Amino acid sequence: MPALSLIGGGGTNAFGILKRVNPLSALLKTAAGFSILGTTITTSGACSANWKVGVAGLAGVITSVPAGGLVVGGTTHIVDDIALQAYQDLSDAFNAFVAMTPQHVIAGDMINKVLLPGVYYTDAAVTSTGPMTFDDPDGGGIFVIQMNGGAYTPAAGSSTILKNFAKASNIFWVLNGGALSSGGASNITGVIVAGGAITIGDGGTVTGQLLALGGITLANNTIFST
Predict the structure, then answer these.
(1) Nearest to residue 199, comparing CAs of 212, 163, 207, 208?
(2) Would you say residue 155 lies in a domain?
(3) In contact, 34 and 86? CB cutoff 8 Å
(4) Is the residue at 188 inside a domain?
């Protein structure tokens, strides 16, 4: 895969080629069509996802309490060829995201922080105790947040603001070595690309996708992919 560079200004204000080609199809390939993809999926309460759901672990299973507690708007794939191919594509995309050269460092609490398109990096745990903003003034911008070793733990009730042309489908949270564990009733926006596990707190919503090389745990959550 050719190197991806960040280009400022004009019509190529972020990743040049990725501005013209949907980054989901360019990097995630078949995994781009999944709302939820992991080795296992465990849900409690009433959960829903509007796109495909897939499980790709050798003993892959969707465990729901109560039974049928996960409502899927698309198709469900449990250790079939579609899920396994998507998982391989996810693994390749994860490696590509991790290899991107960071431009900015983030740390600590992201409350009231405003991020412009670019590649962000942290090697420590990050949280958000309130609203954070993604601002794309020109349109087509890509946000990549590389979390290398630290967990991402948005607090209960935290939220995300999309300003100007910012889109959930152009925001990528890349968890390399750390897990995502959100507080109750939190709102997470973007595509979560996790090398490990994902846990969404009770009543939390996700505007984006949950794509994990590990297991995914949900509790009364709505996953709305765009």
Answers:
(1) 212
(2) yes
(3) yes
(4) yes
Q: Which two tokens stand for residue 118?
A: 């670019």
Predicted confidence (pLDDT) per residue in 93-141, tens digit: 999 999 999 999 999 999 999 999 999 999 999 999 999 999 999 998 9
Residue 57 CA neighbour count, 13 Å, CB half: 16
Question: What is the extent of the structural domain holding 90?
Answer: 31-224
> Residue ranges of the alpha helices (H) in 72-219?
81-99
Q: What is the pLDDT of residues 131-144, one digit of tens each?
A: 999 999 999 899 99
CA distances for 35 relative to 114, 165, 210, angstroms: 26, 22, 6
**Number of domains the chain contains:** 1
Asked whether residue 21 is domain-assigned, the answer is no
Q: What is the pTM of this model?
A: 0.90
Pairing of strands 118-122, 104-105: parallel
Q: Does 15 reside within a domain?
A: no
